[in-house]
Specification:
It holds the Pfam family Glyco_hydro_9. One of its GO terms (molecular function) is hydrolase activity. This is Glycoside hydrolase family 9 protein. It comes from Paenibacillus farraposensis. Keywords: Carbohydrate metabolism, Glycosidase, Hydrolase, Polysaccharide degradation, Signal. The chain starts with 9 loop residues before the first strand and ends with a strand. The strands form ten sheets. Strands 26, 27, 28, 31, 35 and 36 form a six-stranded antiparallel beta sheet that branches. It is α+β, with helices and mostly antiparallel strands. It is flat and about 105 Å long. The protein contains 20 helices and 38 strands. The longest helix has 20 residues.
């Protein structure tokens, strides 16, 4: 997407009587006149309408996409749901709002006290993943307008439900982005998420885009940073949605309308143009305010909204928004642009013309623009007026090379609306001629709607990351798109009917949500005029051809009588939807029968590593284990290569050498030709079914020598062993190992062993009881499955301690695990402070600490989900300890404000429900956390959470 230029129109002084009388409006009931358009339909408008909606499924952002209409799209940009404000435990402000503004409006911006705002949902702008303001709200309003005018087309073609789903995805996002105070006044409106300059350095699926590497700030309209153009466009979209939903969901329609009114008042009060980081710069806001006003009038019948547009002074000079383009009632205006993301005058006057059909000026402004677009096929009423848009040699109206088809489609929508209300079929016929050109009746010989009528008969290389599916951040790799971007309208031809169907060409082949906005409505209008009886496709979209998502390639680098040097490339080519994997492994099988025949053994074989791409990328090496015997007597063995410690998408190279020693007579006997995984290997990389690939221990590709399909791998050594002291007990925890079915916990009283196995468990935690306090114990853990047992983990030590006695009358801190899953992406400690003393204790004197391990030094967010004392009366901060402790390198500290009150004698605080998550929503491993205890599902005194009074520890044991 690039900035485009606004062309305002031709301003002329009319030598006619003042227009004051004409501009005195009266809303006249106006019935749509069915247009009797001539000419049979060459193309299936029902099918094209159906496909055009699926483009919006490809553009969705947020949660709830996985499992939807397109199998290759999944949830993305989840960080948009918690953009930090720099308050309530978050350290960074990733918005354009000032700290003073945020602190002054915390109750509105952060009512749940989690220090962040949720601006998730909405749609990607184009092939990129930014949610830009004007295109988002323009598209929402224009799609809604087309649906409002031609709803019967959606019903008759079975697309009504799908269309409403897309419209609601827009309106839900706009509602979520609107922050109002208790009186209903808008305090802030989010209109952009992401940064175009940063985002445009990425070219790949949105599901794989790392928000840490490509941060997504949120941009808000406020009284400090006004953006009346953005807020007004959103008001228009929500007003239209209220009309579309009033008979289906009156409550939702009312919510949309109330927010539309509030956003309009907010825009009127705080005038100023929003920021777009230079990508979608707005020229002014009068058109946007007019667009909102005309639809608010349509929704409310409040004439004040119309007066905002066309108000005049005693001298006949316009004082309303129209003064931007027309000086006085003695003047006129001719629009030589079109309804578009930056200029919505075309839509404004078309709507005004249909609302007030007896007003000749509104009709003139709307009609003249359509006549202009026709290139003279529809003549102006004034025969001396020869101002028309120059047409291409083949008769296509191209007002700009950049996105010519999107502007043309928007003009078609306006023409079809005008035809609906006036009964003039010439405008509908012109729209049909232009749509047929877009659909393939053009010199290039193919359709500019991707996938229509078929992928082979349409543009094939839209400028779109997700559909292209590059794994290498490269627009030219792969050469062909992985997915069909069904229904997307590409930029289109230039004024010479020439188009360039190349992925890198964003002028000719850009796709964007505003491109399809006019297209959808125009297709609906054309269906009603020309396509009655046409049918959409059944069972659409078709399932994509299944391919191997996981496999390995091999390439022979060099070989001689002593060694084989091989590059093994493991692949994760998941596309339904794309995702990282953390449990991948491969095996390389070989035979030493020739060594056995020469009196040698497996001890004469070694493996050397020459290149590890995973280590180069992430610093985490591939885990190599083996050799393991398949049939020792026959000499069949394998090495296993394990990528389980790092997320993997795409491919990773691993180059190694198998080396055989010479025998006692200094002779070499290495013969790789009998090696299973050597079968078919050449000096060119090729997929090998003889190198099986495993995902979480299950074979997902390739063949083993014995033909087995499910063969477990010996699990790797458990990592990050941690020990936590208790009263006469110790908690031992570790990270789970891929493919492990059990773990052996081993203990010693001397560092380094010998160790005795004290338990075999299935989970990654164990509580060792019956210990002697003040005695140090040493632990290791191994992982096992049917293939064997790993080596021991690194050693951990712990010294149990007696619990600090709670004095009679002292405070006690009770704990409950609100989430017992130790491995998910958030944890939920809950607390209750009990006062068994004889005097009240002010809560402002108390602080709680919950001790845990971050498991990756990443920004985190604290949330108070509910508290009997009120979440607004407490605060939480997440503190990293200066030095790591057993089971803790951080703690959550909860403090209470002055308004929290006191705990009465014999009373308690009641429940305090909290929640912590990482900002990138990666998982924790709570199993080793000092304060975590999944067995405590009801409030219980727990000495691993600590309570302080005026800074002094009064309950619990610190780690």
């Amino acid at each position: 997407m690039k900035t485009s230029k606004r062309f305002l129109g031709v301003f002329r002084t009319c030598g006619v009587a003042a227009l004051a009388t004409a501009m005195t409006l009266s809303s006249v009931s106006f019935l749509a006149v069915p247009a009797k358009a001539a000419g049979a339909a060459k193309y299936n408008y029902a099918e094209a309408l159906q496909k055009s909606l699926y483009f919006y499924d490809a553009e969705k952002s947020g949660q709830g996409i996985t499992g939807g209409h397109l199998e290759w799209r999944g949830d993305s940009e989840l960080s948009d749901s918690h953009i930090p404000l720099g308050i309530n435990g978050t350290t960074t402000n990733m918005t354009n709002m000032s700290a003073n503004f945020i602190n002054s409006n915390k109750a509105v911006l952060d009512p749940d006290g989690n220090g962040s705002v949720d601006v998730s949902g909405g749609f990607h702008d184009a092939g990129d993943h930014v949610k830009f303001g004007l295109p988002q709200s323009y598209t929402a309003s224009t799609l809604g307008w087309g649906f409002y005018e031609f709803r019967d087309a959606f019903r008759q073609t079975g697309q009504e439900e799908h269309m409403l789903e897309e419209l609601k995805w827009f309106s839900d996002y706009l509602l979520r982005s609107t922050f109002r105070d208790s009186s209903g006044k808008v305090i802030a409106f989010n209109y952009m998420v992401g940064n175009g300059t940063v985002d445009h350095t990425y070219w790949g699926p949105p599901e794989l885009q790392d928000s840490a590497k490509y941060p997504r700030p949120a941009t808000f309209a406020t009284a400090e940073t006004p953006a009346s153009d953005q807020a007004a466009e959103a008001a228009a979209a929500l007003a239209i949605m209220s009309l579309n939903m009033k008979n289906d969901d009156a409550e939702y329609a009312s919510t949309c309308l109330e927010n539309a009114k509030a956003l309009y008042r907010f825009a009127q009060t705080n005038r100023g143009l929003g920021n777009s980081d230079g990508f979608y710069n707005s020229s002014f806001d009068e058109d946007d305010l007019s667009w909102a006003a005309v639809w608010l009038y349509a929704a409310t019948s409040d004439m004040n909204y119309i007066h905002d547009i066309n108000a005049t002074g005693p001298d006949g000079m316009y004082t309303g928004y129209m003064k931007k383009i027309i000086r006085s009632t003695s003047d006129s205006w001719q629009n030589i642009w079109v309804h578009s993301w930056d200029t919505v005058w075309g839509g404004v006057f078309m709507k005004l013309a249909t609302l007030f059909p007896d007003n000749p000026d509104f009709d003139y402004f709307a009609r003249w623009n359509l006549e202009y677009w026709s290139g003279g096929k529809i003549q102006h009423k004034d025969p001396s007026d020869k101002t028309y848009l120059k047409q291409s040699p083949d008769g296509f109206g191209a007002i700009s090379t950049w996105g010519s088809a999107r502007y043309n489609a928007a003009a078609q929508l306006c023409a079809l609306v005008y035809s609906k209300y006036t009964g003039r079929t010439d405008f509908a016929d012109w729209a049909k001629s232009q749509m047929d050109y877009i659909m393939g009746d053009n010199p290039m010989g193919y359709s500019y709607i991707v996938g229509f009528p078929t992928p082979q008969q349409s543009a094939k290389h839209p400028h779109h990351r997700a559909a292209h599916g590059s794994k290498t951040n490269n627009m030219t790799t792969p050469a062909e798109h992985r997915h069909v971007l069904w229904g997307a309208l590409v930029g289109g031809p230039d004024s010479d009917d020439v188009h360039n169907d190349v992925t890198t060409d964003y002028v000719y082949n850009e796709v964007a949500i505003d491109y399809n906005a006019g297209l959808v409505g125009a297709l609906a209008g054309l269906y009603l005029q020309y396509g009655q009886g046409q049918q959409p496709l059944a069972d659409f979209p078709p399932k994509e051809e299944k391919t191997d998502e996981y496999y390995a390639e091999t390439k022979l680098e060099q070989e001689n009588a002593e060694r084989s040097q091989v590059t093994l490339t493991v692949h994760n080519e998941s596309v339904h939807p794309p995702h990282f994997e953390t449990g991948m492994a491969a095996r390389y099988y070989f035979s030493i029968s020739e060594l056995l025949a020469a009196g040698q053994s497996i001890n004469d074989v070694s493996l050397e590593i020459y290149y590890d791409e995973q280590k180069t990328i992430s610093g985490v090496p591939v885990k190599v284990t083996g050799p393991f015997a398949v049939d020792a007597a026959a000499g069949t063995y394998y090495y296993q290569f394990d990528w389980a410690d790092s997320p993997l998408y795409g491919d990773r190279d691993f180059q190694f050498g198998l080396i055989a020693k010479q025998d006692r007579n200094y002779k070499s006997h290495w013969d790789p030709t009998n090696d299973w995984s050597h079968t078919g290997i050449t000096s060119r990389a090729a997929i090998s079914p003889y190198v099986p690939v495993y995902l979480n221990g299950v074979k997902v590709y390739g063949n083993e020598p014995d033909g087995g399909s499910r063969s477990p791998i010996v699990p790797p050594v458990p990592k990050d062993l941690k020990t936590t002291a208790g009263n006469a007990q110790a908690t031992v925890s570790w990270n789970t190992s891929s493919w492990a079915t059990s773990y052996s916990v081993k203990r010693a009283t001397t560092s380094g062993g010998p160790y005795t196995t004290i338990a075999t468990v299935a989970s990654a935690t164990y509580v060792d009881t019956g210990l002697t306090n003040d005695t140090t114990y040493y632990y290791v853990v191994s992982a096992a499955n049917s293939a064997g047992e790993s080596e021991n983990s690194d050693q951990g030590s712990v010294t149990p301690q007696a619990t600090v006695d709670v004095k009679p009358g002292a405070l006690a801190l009770q704990y409950r695990a609100g989430d017992t899953n130790a491995g998910d992406n958030q944890f939920k400690p809950q607390f209750n402070i009990v006062n068994t003393g004889s005097t009240a204790v002010p809560l402002s004197e108390l602080t709680i600490r919950y001790w845990y391990t971050i498991d990756g030094d990443k920004p985190q967010t604290f949330n108070c989900d509910w508290a009997q004392v009120g979440c607004s009366n407490l605060s939480g901060k997440l503190v990293k300890t200066p030095t790591a402790k057993a089971g803790a390198d951080a703690y959550l500290e909860i403090a209470f404000g002055a308004n929290a009150g006191s705990i009465t004698a014999g009373g308690n605080t009641g429940e305090i429900q909290t929640r912590i998550n990482k900002n990138d929503w990666t998982n924790y491993n709570e199993a080793d956390d000092y304060s975590f205890d999944p067995t405590k599902t009801s409030f219980t005194n727990w000495d691993h959470v600590t309570l302080y009074q005026n800074g002094t520890l009064v309950w619990g044991i610190e780690p």
